[in-house]
Amino acid sequence: MGSSRSVRYHSTKAHEGALAIGPREADTSERTGDAETVTTDAHRAIEAIWRIESARLIAGLTRVVGDIGTAEEIAQDALVKALEQWPTSGVPEKPGAWLMATAKHRAADLIRRRKTLERKYEELGRDAERDQDGKDLETAIDEDFGDDLLGLIFMASHPVLSKDARVALTLRVLGGLTTEEIARGFLVPVPNIAQRIVRAKRTLAEAHVRFEVPDGPDRVARLASVLEVIYLIFNEGYSATAGEDWVRPALCEEAIRLGRILAELTPTEPEVHGLVALMEIHASRLSARVGPSGEPILLLDQDRARWDGLLIRRGLAALERAERLGGAMGPYALQAAIAACHARATTATETDWPRIVALYDAVAQLAPSPVVELNRAVAVGMAFGPAAGLDLVDALLAEASLKTYHLLPAVRGDLLRKLGRSAEAGAEFERAASLTENVRERELLQRRAAECAAETNLESLR
Amino acid sequence: MRVLVLAKEGEQSKAATPPTPEAMADYEKFNGELVKAGVVVGAGRLSPSSQGKRVQFDGKKRTVIDGPFAETKELVAGYWLWQVRSMDEAIEWLKRAPYDGGIFEIRQVSQYEGA
Questions:
Q1: Is A48 close to B35, i.e. CB distance below 8 A?
Q2: What is the ipTM of this complex?
Q3: Which of A45, A290, A294 sits opposite B92 (nearest CB)?
């Protein structure tokens, strides 16, 4: 086991509580006295400052102490100090520097203690692994933090971790979200998320995952893992797989923010820009894809005047950057190019469907999957008629991985309905409704099923 | 959430004094930090109000008024669009801006009405 685990820093449970409860209460509690107002204002300021500083703080500390768990604990100790002192002393002029200085002292302290302990181990003839070189501690902590942030991004998304673990750890250490906030975002009980994060940190330490910005052939796979995590966070916000809400914009915003930060840190990586483009363009439709009572509105039915032009422009610019860097055929850039086809069409009928089919062909060649085939079938149905689309969908019916995927019957229902086969279409929508975990989506599908039933009745009357 | 940060620099925008190189460098540094943190989604500096126009609506009547405008304290010299997680975060960022005068106003942009 690495030296980083040989001395445990004390528990952070209470600190998390302090952060999670303190500032949050400020919103709901009545402000009775001046002292209380000062306290709650300071707490809110501290929470905001933590959000701004925590990632860089944890990144710099991780480089020095070697593991995320210890780094986060030290950073949180500094936060607790702030919570104790700032409400009375006032927020310092440079709060980020204050937190950093406080954390630095703690880190130096910890490493000194670690060294003493290891010396004792050595005296006992034990083999103490060392990865800290003799560099002066204070200088080591002072080094450039831009690279550190990138190192932390790669570490939190390391392929040794499960997808769920990578997502939770990334939101925690890079997004500065509390366990409660992550749990709320993913509709998972708080203890599960807490467990997931603890285990993730342990796995990284046990696997001796190094704090580094990977280079060479390893970099491609490692970067793909980072991008996957960001996109997973985005998608969970964009079409929540379960629960009452159809979209959870906060998760989308968190993912886009991470993407934008990553794009600044790795400006020459085309796929990073491709992913940013994809997220920006999709996010431009966030307010158009939800109706007044929370029901989903599908792409072709959306009021395009409500699309966010600023995000579209940003997305198209990011896509251009990806293409200029030679990344037009990257999986994210391709999907962004498809999203861009929709973004460029002022009305649904102006959509360049043949181009979308061609782009899906490219995606299918690059990363063939039944879901891509299903999307391609939709595009083919729009470009060359519902019968052509239905042929492709029917070919997917035997696909095991799509057996419980609600969008397969939903798409099939749509194509059948366009072909005038309302009774069959209704049955497909019913089936789709029974397969989705999202309440809003289920309601939409049930409504479509009911419409098909009405059409069927009408036909039988003729 | 998205916020609009309005720089109400008052007289400065009317006079349109070009900022000193030091002030520009400080601004660039601060703006760079904001961009690196994924906060900035848009920004712009406005030309002096003497070049601006106002259109006043009164029933069916439209009256065009030429600048400069009198309410110097309310004159906007520039704006930022920021993506932040809370108004508190916006305040904390803005406090770090390298300005020694003027009033800056933060307003939330309404989004996701349906959500």
A1: no
A2: 0.87
A3: A45
